Amino acid sequence: MTQRAPRPRGRLPRLWARPWAVGLAGLLGLGLCSGPAAAWDPSTTHQGLLESAVTRSAVHLRWMDASELERGLFTSLRVDPDRLTKEELRLLQLTIRNAHADVGARPLGGPGACPSADAPPETQLFCVDQNLWEHSALGWLRLGMLAEVTPSARELNHFVDLEHPEAARWSDDELPAAVLRRRARANGEPTAGVVTGTNFSGQAPSAIAWFEDPDDLLAPPQTYAHLALASSAASQAERDHHLALAMMGVGALLHVVQDLAVPAHARGDGTAFFAPLSPAPGDRGLPLQEFVRFEYGRSELPGLRAGLGGRSSALGSPAPGGPSAAGPSGVPLAETLIGHVLGDAQHDGVATLAGRHFFSESSVPAPQHLDPTLSASEAASALLGDAHHLAAVEVEGATLAPWPAERGYLLSPTGRALAAFDTDLDGRTRPYLDEACYRDQAALLLPAAVDATRSLLDLLWPAWPEMQRSGDDLVLTIPAWASAELSVSIQRDDGQRREVGRHALTVSSENVVALGVGELAPGERVVLVLDATRADGPPIVLEQILSRRGPA
């Protein structure tokens, strides 16, 4: 058998000649690029996933319908720096400074944007009002997606553990602690232990823990608090301020969940982010991220133009607890955040899909000496071993093709390339990932990430319950939530609100609520705010303006 030079695991031999590989190597050689790549690229892939999800979500239409066409995802929202804590202000300023100009995430205005009154008119272009920032609700979502990796050491919270995905911590024993410490210092952290509390000893809090972190400015608990204030604050300025911050938090949440559709994140494989991208020394990063960024950019993501169906057939016949097809617009895939990540009885979460159906760069099986007299399926079984962590549908009936051979592919029962293989100097069969594997991963995981993003938006802002108005009474049919409460307020033309009633509601039942608002002054309107809780999912805060035209 011909002896060939060994190839480091994770390297992409077919992609070395690609322009992006040469470009990255050149940047690193010139010292213009520091640190390894992220998961999906925040300025291209993440933004493309968000745009595709927004067009499939019902949130914009629900907001417009509930506000009599006054509020939607393109409505301008202003953030007041004087209302921010020092930590919030620092995070916002750092994110804006690092945001690419063409992403659409940079707001107008902010401290220092408004020159003196006698300054030339052209210098007023970026001034909003004093020190206020202004952006659309969608723009604040975009900015939140970038804030979630500011600094990029925050990416350590975007993983789940390979052995125990539900655990509050993840670990990667193969990743040297010294590498992690260097990365943290490169991103401005004063000490390594600030981010994880473990001095980067190869483990960190997982995405599951981040979902419940009360101290993280962008984590769901803070986002829920801003969402509540976005409806309960008295003035329009306060409500807009908190809604903008809530949208940033939602953007951060979407970023984390989208990252978990990357096998390296879903398999706790931090080592994959230091895989060689080209023969140039120091040119390291996550190959899947670079492949998707340069192959598809922001608007040509695979499988998104034609829709999201058909994912199950590419992985084999769906079974209970197995991969599921895309959900209908407006209907969440799961009722909890963890359900979107790890799945439930009705839906496979994105981390389960990515981690149990695909290898990451450093979690492929170890090289092995294989007997050439074995059949193709026996050789595949021997190469996979017992520690592959793949779903049974991927490995029962897997084959090596061609076999026996010096190079080829490890194929799933459906013929999908789980990994490529070649032969090293010692005659061992060595699996790795190549362009064909990444193309298959992108074709299945990117649509899954879009659907999870769409689903989370519809989960946070579900449809207003069935409601009828009869005179001064409302009849509301409340779903099977854990609890629900209705607030009735009067809103003036200037946006100022005053609460005139609060009513506890019975869930899974029809409720009759007396408005008791009396005669309205010119310009006044009745605003309903529904606060509800789910058994395990995120809280619900919905607004509804009662139409002057009569019954809802």
Your description of this structure?
The chain is of the alpha+beta class and 552 residues long. The protein is 33% helix and 16% strand. It is built from 18 helices and 18 strands. The chain has helices spanning 19-29, 45-56, 59-66, 86-98, 137-147, 177-186, 193-196, 207-210, 220-232, 236-259, 263-266, 287-296, 311-315, 337-342, 350-357, 376-384, 392-395, 435-460; strands at 76-79, 108-109, 133-136, 169-171, 203-205, 275-276, 284-285, 399-401, 408-411, 417-423, 429-432, 466-470, 473-478, 483-491, 497-505, 509-514, 525-533, 540-545. The strands form six sheets. It has a four-stranded antiparallel sheet with strand order 8-9-10-11, with helices on both faces. A hairpin with a 5-residue loop joins strand 10 and strand 11. Helix 5 crosses helix 10, helix 9 (220-232) packs antiparallel against helix 10 and helix 12 crosses helix 18. It is globular. Mean pLDDT is 85; it is low at 1-37, 182-200 and 306-325.
Question: Strands, helices and their partners?
Answer:
Elements: H1 19-29, H2 45-56, H3 59-66, E1 76-79, H4 86-98, E2 108-109, E3 133-136, H5 137-147, E4 169-171, H6 177-186, H7 193-196, E5 203-205, H8 207-210, H9 220-232, H10 236-259, H11 263-266, E6 275-276, E7 284-285, H12 287-296, H13 311-315, H14 337-342, H15 350-357, H16 376-384, H17 392-395, E8 399-401, E9 408-411, E10 417-423, E11 429-432, H18 435-460, E12 466-470, E13 473-478, E14 483-491, E15 497-505, E16 509-514, E17 525-533, E18 540-545
Antiparallel strand pairs: 1-3, 2-3, 4-5, 6-7, 8-9, 9-10, 10-11, 12-13, 13-16, 14-15, 14-17, 17-18
Helix pairs in contact: 2-18, 5-10, 9-10, 10-18, 12-18
